[in-house]
Amino acid sequence: MMPAKIAMLALVVLAACAPEPPQTAPAPATPQLSPQLRAIYGATEDDGRTIPAVNPKYLSEEKARQEVDYWTDKPPGTIVVDPWARKLYLVQKNDRALRYTVAVGEDGRGFAGKGHIPYQRDWPSWTPTQNMIKDDPALYGPVKDGLEGGLDNPLGARALYLHRGNKDTLYRIHGTMDDSSIGKATSAGCIRLFNQDIIDLADRVRSGTDVVVLTRAQSGQGTVPPGQPLPPVLYSADDFPNPQTSTGEQT
């Protein structure tokens, strides 16, 4: 065999034995959102302020507010917060509820039981607690005397104030400017919703609305018919410190 043919044969053999180059995994596709969902969470004007649209990467059909089956003996109009599942339910008639996705922090996990909402505020002001100022004076010191309501305020567009009897529990259900936190358990804060959702919820809530905040053992109640086992809790016990009532207004 001529040397040139031998060399060509060797190249063919080496090519056949060589491993194929690794395939680059395609980038995950951006979730396709319906036009209706984009409209619901689009930019909106409220009291002279423009609330930005929610970034599509923080949205999904599952996260969006929606009417769902919900079995409970609580009367329509009751708010049920399930911090362990990161959901809030506004009870409707005929075993239905409006479901909102929430973010929950340590203080949002620290309250459980019954309360009521005597009032709410549009674009509420906010004051950090003394503990917050002590723990992070560089961050909270400049606003130690309070922060007026607005687009930079951590309470967002609305706040519902939870009382037990005549006492303010310092527990809030409110909006947030941090859309990336919705659906997550974060290090601090009460119950937070997309601003578009807290405006919708606040429009449906009246003074005196009852609120029930579920414990870890109660998580999932209402999402399945009576007599069926509850769904598994999303978090382990390590994710939730021992509950205790919040001792200061948080975000």
UniProtKB/TrEMBL annotation:
Residues 1-18 form the signal peptide. GO terms for biological process: cell wall organization; peptidoglycan-protein cross-linking; regulation of cell shape. One of its GO terms (cellular component) is extracellular region. The active site is at H174, C190. GO terms for molecular function: glycosyltransferase activity; peptidoglycan L,D-transpeptidase activity. Residues 219-251 are annotated as: Disordered. PANTHER family: L,D-TRANSPEPTIDASE, L,D-TRANSPEPTIDASE ERFK_SRFK-RELATED. Belongs to the YkuD family. This is L,D-TPase catalytic domain-containing protein. It comes from Thioclava indica. The lineage of its organism: Bacteria, Pseudomonadati, Pseudomonadota, Alphaproteobacteria, Rhodobacterales.
